[in-house]
Each structure stands twice: as C-alpha cells, then as structure tokens.
Amino acid sequence: MATYTILVTGGSGFVGGHVILQLLAQGHRVRTTVRNLDREAEVRETFRRAGADAGDRLAFFAADLERDEGWDEAALGCDHVQHVASPFPPVQPRDENELIRPAREGTLRVLRAARDAGVRRAVVTSSFAAIGYGHGQRATPYTEADWTDPDGPAVQPYMKSKTLAERAAWDFIAREGGGMELAVVNPVGIFGPALNGDLSTSIWLVKAMLEGRMPGTPRLYLGVVDVRDVANLQLRAMTDPRASGERFLAVAGESMSFHEIAMVLRAHLGQAAARVPRHQLPDWVIRLLAVFNPLAREAVPRLGIKASASNAKAREVLGWTPRPTEEAILATARSLIDPEQIRSAGSPPPSPA
Q1: Looking at the DSSP assignment, which residues form a beta bridge with residue 33?
Q2: What's the Cα-to-Cα distance from 184 to each of 41, 202, 278, 334, rounded to whole Å?
Q3: Which positions ≥6 away from 88 have C-beta within 8 Å?
Q4: 162 catalytic residue (yes or no)
Q5: pLDDT tens per residue, range 209-258
Q6: CB of 214 closer than 8 Å to CB of 1
Q7: CA-to-CA distance for 48 and 165, rounded, in angstroms?
C-alpha cells in the first residue's frame, strides 16, 4: 500500500481523532491542526491511550478556521487533505453568522492552502445537515443528489452553516481549484467510542441518558453511524479514483428515535443503564419546556419528523460496509461508562427534556 502525507484539520476532535488513528494504522504520515500548540501533549496522549504508535509520523501545526495564518505551512508537502474541523456548539447561537462564517470561510481557507500546496485531493467532512433539512416530512430516503434548503422550515444555523460551507467548497473547486480534486462525506448522527472529552452531540445524548438527565425522550429521530466507519469512508474517498467529484452519505441504517436508542442501552447494559429513560414524552411536554429551555425550543420544529437516508452509493462505489446501528450506540455507551472517560468529559449542555 502506498503511503502519503495527509493534513487532518481538527485532529483534537472526535471525528478527526479517529481519522488520524486509521491513517497512522495504515502507515501514513499525518499533520494535524490545533488552534493552540499547547494542546499537542494532550492530543498525543489521547492517541497513545488508543494504542497508536505515532512517533515522528504525527506533526502539529497551529491554525484557526477564522484566521489566514498557519494554513499554508500546514498544507505544504501534503498529498491529501482531510478537512474535518467545523464548529458545532451544543446550543444554536442567536447570530447564525457565528457558525456560518467559520464553517464557510474556514473551508475556503483550507482548500486554498491545499490547492497552493499542490494537494491531489481534499476530502471535506460535511453532514446530513447539508442534505436532508428544510423539506418537512418525506417518505423517500434522501440521497447525495439532495440538498438542504437553507431558507426552508426548521433549518437552524448549524444546518445552514454546513450547507453553505459545502456549496462553497464545490464552487471553489469548479472555479479556482486548479485541478485539485474534491470528495465530500456527509455523515448522519455520529456515535462510537469516545477518545477523550471532546464529545459529539450524539455522544452527549447517550451521556445524558446514562446519567439520568432525561426524565423521558422527546419524539425525535436521527440517523446513526459509527465514527470508525465515518473515518473509514473518509479514507476510501481520499484515494479511490471513483470518489473524485462525488458526495457520499455515511449512514448505517434506518433512523432511530431517541426512545429506540434508550431501549438499546437498557437492553444491553444492565445496571449501567438503570437511569436511562423508559418512556417517550408527549409532544406537548416538549412544547411546554421550550418556553424556558433553548434545546427544547430547537427540538419543537423536528418533533415526529423521521428522515431516512440511503448509503447505497458508498456501498456500491467504494465498497463501504458500516457497523450495525446497535453496535455504534453500545460502543458509545461503553466508552462513557469507563470512569476515566466520564471524568474527562466534563459537564454536558442542558438536556432538551
């Protein structure tokens, strides 16, 4: 197998960390960006605990999505770029530009630096948020041909930021890419083993359930995929000739309700799941909570809407085979049950219920 030098943005994060682990396991040389190099020792220790023998094959560079400095140096000499970093706050900001600006402008900064460095192909981690929102209830599965309507109903700033950032990436490649190739991966809700306290929103959901912070589950649905399978798809999209110019949905199976996720935890984790909610709350309870709880307020427009997505393209074009949804959910929980993981995870954002 050929080995490459790859820049991974956001290497201290959940998805970025797993991408780096798989790249190192395949023998590649990895560069990663952090906003502050003071975090290098902490991130290296995360990989060491995960069993990665990084040595001098892992290098750190200081770069911020909202600043020009550092990106050219980080990309210089790289064969490929995995652009994973993107802001994803626990609560939506009042000013949507707090998310849109770093997501869109940060993506363009990374792509410009990659182009100028002669990178062969960039892989951008987008989201189902750029595909399946703003259309209300829909019976047929979403595919890579679909786009979120940024001005559609119930489209929140995060969904809009991912949509506009991905659109900007494709426009850049078409107009200014200079021959550099682009592939995009669009994951649904990302579960799987936490590496440190940098937790995705999906992991916060499981953590809140395990800790008894949810008296009941709202009638919400989300797609499920394991972070290890997202990383695997990112790597396939990086080198497979058929991935150039394509988007790939990363989803393991049918969307699951929060209640179904809770029942998986209760069925398999014994006493560790004793505080996981047993019941689904009526919609009127969530609407009442929305008066004073911002997360409940965000949930109201999505109550009862079940969006499904197809992984046929990733399977057929790239030979991708994801883990079952149940396995992804249980891997999440088991990584949180470890006392060291719980101590490092800090305090979660307020629960929507």
Answers
A1: 61
A2: 30, 21, 38, 30
A3: 158, 200, 201
A4: yes
A5: 999 998 899 999 999 999 999 999 999 999 999 999 999 999 999 999 99
A6: no
A7: 33
